[in-house]
Amino acid sequence: MRSLILSAIAPIVLHLTLVFSLFLLLYGHNQPGGGFIAGLMTAVGLVLQWVAFDAREGWRRFNWPWDKIFSWGLALAAGVGLFGLLKGAFLKSSLYEFDLPFVGRVELLSAFLFDVGVYMVVVGVVMMILTLICERRSPRRRRQ
Amino acid sequence: MSGLLPLFVAGPLAAAIVLFLVKGRARLQEGLSLLALAANLALALALLRETAGGEIFIHRMGFWPFPYGILLAADRLAATMLCLSAAVVGASGLFACSYLSEDQRREVFHPLLHFLLMGIQGAFATGDIFNLFVFFEVMLMATYALLGFYHDLDQLEMALKYTCLNLIASAFFLVGVTMLYAQVGTVNMADLAVKVRAVGPTPMMALTALTFVSVFSVKAAIFPMHLWLPSAHSLSPTPVSAILAGVLVKVGVYAILRCATLIFPAPFQRIQTLLIGLAVVTILFGALGTLPQRNLKRILAYSTINQLGYIVFAIALLNPAGWAAAVFYAVGHAFLKSSLLLGAGLNQKLTGTVDLDEMGGLMTRAPFSTLLLLTGLLSLAGIPPLAGFFSKLFVLQAGFAQGAYLSTGIVLAAGILSLYYNFTTYQRLAWGTPRGEVGGAPAGMYASVAFLAAFAVVFGLGARWLHEWAQLVAAQLASPEPYIAAMRNAA
To answer: Does B20 touch chain A (CB under 8 A)?
Structure first.
């Protein structure tokens, strides 16, 4: 069943959730927030599209390689951990500061990249699970 | 070596990611997977060599200070278990390359295998009880997917049961950690060891210990938490069954051993009688459970329950001789049972069945694979000079030395049952009138079964060396002070 109100609101809500999840992601490493809940937030926004329209329409709009996003996210997070190992301890965080024109002093924590990795994993996994649930595939019965 | 400890977690993780990215290209994926497994085994052997002198390696993750940060720690026990998991998972990975069908090879079996390895090795290497929970979850999530790998209905039903049971167990694990944290306010194992000792064996602490034991006994399939094991071990893909029986149940055993020696030595004295009782019942249940079975893998699964009873019995004696016997038993059984399960898979490839009633006369028609199975079955039955004999011998010795005559007597008597089921299994498989066709199998399968079965002979003839090593491990477990000090003073 397709609800007119929901399908009108869902794309707008998606933008809001994306902005808010980005905020959570950037805010995360020192304050409440972080890659995990930001990823969930994004995924919720996307799932809402599936609910508002239907699975086929959802896939038409967001037909991205979720499994690749998931694996590259995991690679990024693991890479940050291994980078820390080069500096002495696994998952050791390092801080870089540099000046950007018009913005001013910017602090970049390697933990932030880890968070981005987690974010990609969470979004990727939720969407992969959604793919599997939407697929109609009946299991075979086979006796050993 | 301390700096390399995270590689036991990060290595399999990196391998899993790379393998996931080359999904669909079966040959490349298998080649890379075997390479990673070989590197992992080499690393584990290097660690074993380094820990032999009694040194304890600690790695502080992210340089966080002692009681707050997560530590990876490797003493002799952890190094032993890491070697064991690296070898068994490696052999199973090799076996899987020729066991899976073309379609299945293009799926994500190998990435999942490496995720599983990451969870297992993380659980062995961590020095933090909450982190242990995390690695348990990593391990279980990979297992859930691997158990349902064939997508058939029986398997999914079994995987669902396994998932539900383990979710409940995980919830109880968290409850246990909370109870512990409420009493002593820490989750670091070394810090826990000191603070739990200061609190003393209060009833609440004994209850906490019991909570952990019940959680770990789900993994280690101790009565009454053993019911999931037969179907999970017999219906899962054979390389996975070998890992489940060889390594995964040992994670539960390892956790119980750590609790008994490091975290809760005094509270375990209070629950000792209960533990011994449960172990004896587990031994009897496992042995009796094999009798009505026709499925070879199911017989092996029940025999796993039987054998785990012996290991937990040895741990529950709560003395160094018992712990040495438990370590000897765990190592021997890991190689033995995984070789037998892979042997059953090889046999299935040759005959197309795991039903004993449809086999017969295999000794003349597939002599090499049957000989490999025979080695395993003889060892399982406890025939000298194979490893299984010495495993049982050391457990019984420790039991009688402790003065636990009644329980050790029952354990001794139960040995007759295991003699009986192993011989009848062999008889139905190898003797009698030939039935069905016998095909061929790739060399990789023979190689992995032979690699594992060889240990039944090596650990049997060289029982003295393994026993000396097990005694060294037990000695280190019996005096945890250096372990605690190493964690406290980690650089």
So the answer is: yes
The residue range of the domain holding A24 is 4-134
- B156: chain A residues, CB-CB within 8 Å: 139
The answer to whether A131 contacts chain B (CB < 8 Å) is no
Spatial neighbors of A20 by CB under 8 A, at least 6 apart, are A41
Q: How does pLDDT run across A16-46, given as a tens digit for each residue?
A: 999 999 988 887 766 777 888 999 999 989 8
pLDDT at A17: 93
Say if CB B121 and CB B130 are below 8 A apart: no
In-domain check, residue A90: yes
- A95 and B CB contact within 8 Å: no
Contacts for B161 with CB less than 8 Å, ≥ 6 apart: B228, B231, B232
Interface touch A90/B151, C-beta < 8 Å: no
A94 inside domain: yes
Residues of chain A with pLDDT below 70 are: 1, 29-30, 135-144
Q: Is A91 on the interface with B (CB under 8 A)?
A: yes
Give the distance from residue A122's alpha carbon to the nearest chain B alpha carbon, in angstroms.
15
* Domain assignment present for A143: no
- Number of other residues whose CB lies within 10 A of the CB of residue B360: 19
Q: What is the pLDDT of residue A29?
A: 67
B433 sits in which H/E element: none
Tokens, residue B81:
């278990």
CA distance A125 to chain B (A): 13
Cβ distance of A89 and B153 shorter than 8 Å: no
Residue among A74, A90, A136 with most chain B CBs within 10 A, to mutate: A90
Structural contact between residues B84 and B331, judged by C-beta atoms closer than 8 angstroms: yes
> CA nearest A139 in B: which residue?
B152
Number of domains into which chain A is organized: 1
Please, are residues B229 and B299 in contact by the beta-carbon 8 Å criterion? no
Q: Splitting chain B (491 residues) into consecutive groups of 10 residues, what average pLDDT does each group show?
A: 86 91 86 94 94 88 82 92 94 90 84 94 93 94 88 86 92 95 91 90 92 92 87 89 92 94 91 93 92 90 93 93 94 93 90 83 85 90 88 92 89 90 88 80 89 89 92 92 87 63
- DSSP string computed for A35-56: HHHHHHHHHHHHHHHHHHS-HH
What pLDDT score was predicted for residue A144? 43
ipTM: 0.78
Q: Which residues of B178-204 are buried (b: 16+ CB within 10 A; e: fewer)?
A: ebbeebbebbbbbbbbbbbbeeebeee
- Residue B426 has which token pair? 């062999």
Indicate whether A141 belongs to any domain: no
The residue extents of the domains of chain B are: 2-488
